[in-house]
Specification:
Helices cover 48% and strands 7% of the residues. The protein is an alpha/beta fold and 553 residues long. The strands form two sheets. Strands 5-4-3-6-7-9 form a six-stranded mixed β-sheet, with helices on both faces.
Length: 553
């Protein structure tokens, strides 16, 4: 995502045509965390880079999870009042193409809270923003849990109405079985009681589902699924069996069909069998599993001794281009799976899947210098608190992919020192990754000065926390007319150099940002991803906060 054409901050706030923004010199006391001269980002750029580079509550090398979350919430609150159209677009995009679930929910709550406190009324409605970030059936409950823990039990009507809109879209018999579990702080019945969602008129079956959800929550011993719902009745029949009978059904000749008909996820099967997930059980469950559930369980398949013919079916599914696109997973998920899967039978499939997930990395013409940050902070920080994969490895994935697709590329790793990383056209990305090292501190300028030899462009994949004390940032050795693209993985507040003509900053953990390189060099206007269409598609289709109040089920 481009975040740096040369537009003044004041002008940027009054237009939707250009993203932003000058990096402002911020005085002698404002520096990178390594002590280098730093530049202050315009608030929209700071929020975007933080949102796409941060998982909520995640500890990083230079900032605690609490500090980053507080900075994120503060920026959302400020911009929700000052620039609501842009902020609503960001939150909607985060949950959609950005695939950042928790950040979008937390941000939507902060957006509404700030606008209610300020009495703001212009821009997208609070109700529509809440609705736009709820894309999975457990998220209405998660948003309510966050709101009540952060802001108290008094839930405003716009929040209730936005959640009710989402409930009508998302609640079904299948989502009930998957997400309405005792581990949730807000069950489906709790959500329905609080927001009073009425069934969707176009879903005549939904009223019975709502009533069953309420019974499951308040009278579980008496709750009976609607007789007309074959999924729920099949699930109830399977759960009525003893553990031994249930295992016999699962491992029987039609076990896979019975599990699918009963809407049983692999997690539910593992919990209900009260015994080992052996090869026979996995064989029955695998046909119903989604692609990323398969990827997460490759080690379990090997430990259970799943036969090679079944493993071949799994490999074919997880490496299919359509499945990879549908899963919307970050490329580093496949790298993490490759690092932790114990057997070689998954390696080729994961390599293909990783390649598909990098489909948007462009084939850059001419000569390209690609600099990959391998400093200590990149190794200390992981891409999420639940992952062991470092930002250094994530940076190497994209750097290697860019180099392999470019017409002619110099791939360089840098830290306190720097060196070229050898590669050959057509070889797997994962093979190139084995040639990267850990290189200590972050002297970006020295690496640029050493390796810039008249290339047509420079790309730097980094957390921007460089040791530098000059007036033009780490790209100073590069002529002003040569484009320099910084891809920021961490979203820290200090920028390592100024923005302006031919100096651009991207962010995030997917390859979507690289689409903008081709657009910029083709002379096309680069805008925020969510401003390509109507200025506010959510507000244009959703009712305002006070309209269409939902009724009790």
């Amino acid at each position: 995502m481009l975040v740096a054409p040369h537009v003044s901050a004041a002008a940027a706030r009054n237009t939707q045509a250009a993203p932003c923004l000058h990096h402002r010199p911020a005085g002698p006391d404002f520096r990178t965390y390594e002590g280098g001269a730093a530049y202050a980002r315009e608030p929209r750029e700071e929020l975007f880079l933080l949102a796409v580079g941060n998982f909520v509550t995640q500890q990083t090398f230079y900032e605690s999870g609490r500090e980053r979350d507080a900075r994120y919430t503060r920026l959302v609150r400020e911009l929700a009042v000052e620039d609501p159209v842009w902020t609503a677009g960001l939150l909607r995009w985060l949950r959609g193409e950005g695939n950042m679930r928790t950040a979008s929910l937390v941000g939507a709550a902060a957006y509404v809270r700030a606008r209610l406190e300020a009495g703001a009324s212009g821009g997208p409605s609070n109700r529509s923003v809440i609705d736009s970030v709820l894309q999975r059936a457990d998220e209405p409950g998660e948003l309510l849990a966050h709101w009540t823990s952060e802001y108290g039990r008094n839930v405003p009507q716009p929040v209730k109405r936005g959640i009710a809109d989402a409930v009508r879209r998302l609640y079904s018999s299948r989502s009930l079985l998957k997400y309405d579990t005792a581990s949730k702080g807000f069950r489906f019945g709790d959500v329905l009681n609080l927001v009073h969602a009425s069934p969707d008129p176009d879903k005549p079956w939904q009223g019975a589902i709502f009533r069953y959800a309420l019974d499951r929550r308040h009278h579980p011993e008496q709750a009976l699924p609607p007789a007309s719902d074959r999924l729920l009745t099949a699930h109830r029949a399977l759960m009525a069996l003893s553990v031994d009978e249930r295992r016999a059904v699962v491992t029987g000749p039609d076990g896979a069909e019975r599990l699918a008909a009963a809407g049983m996820t692999w997690e539910a099967v593992a919990g209900r069998l009260q015994g080992p997930m052996d090869a026979a059980v996995w064989e029955a469950v695998i046909p119903s599993m989604g692609p990323m559930a398969l990827v997460r369980n490759l080690r379990n398949f090997d430990e259970a001794g799943v036969p090679d013919e079944v493993a071949a079916q799994v490999a074919a599914r997880i490496s299919g281009a359509a499945e990879v696109a549908r899963s919307r997973q970050f490329p580093f998920r496949y790298l993490a799976a490759h690092q932790h899967a114990p057997s070689a039978r998954w390696a080729e499939a994961l390599e293909r899947a990783l390649g598909h997930s990098l489909a948007n990395v462009p084939a850059l013409p001419g000569r390209t210098l690609i600099l990959v940050d391998r400093s200590d902070s990149m190794f200390w920080d992981t891409v999420s608190e639940r992952s062991t994969l470092t930002r250094a490895d994530a940076a190497a994935v994209f750097g290697a992919a860019l180099a392999l697709r470019a017409e002619q590329a110099d791939l360089v790793e840098f830290g306190g020192s720097s060196a070229q990383v050898p590669f050959q056209a057509g070889e797997p990305v994962l093979d190139v990754l084995k040639r990267f090292h850990s290189l200590g501190g972050t002297d970006t300028t020295k690496a640029v000065r050493k390796h810039y030899k008249g290339q047509d462009r420079v790309l730097i994949v980094t957390d921007e926390q460089a040791v530098y004390y000059g007036p033009r940032g780490p790209a100073e050795p590069v002529p002003a007319e040569i484009p320099v693209y910084t891809w920021n993985l961490a979203g820290y507040q200090p920028a390592h150099g100024p923005a302006g003509p031919h100096r651009h900053t991207f962010g995030g953990l997917t390859d979507a940002a690289f689409r903008m390189v081709g657009l910029i060099e083709a002379g096309r206007e680069a805008a925020w991803p969510w401003t390509a269409g109507p200025a506010d598609p959510v507000a244009a289709t959703a009712p305002p906060d006070g309209a269409g109040a939902a009724s009790s089920p």
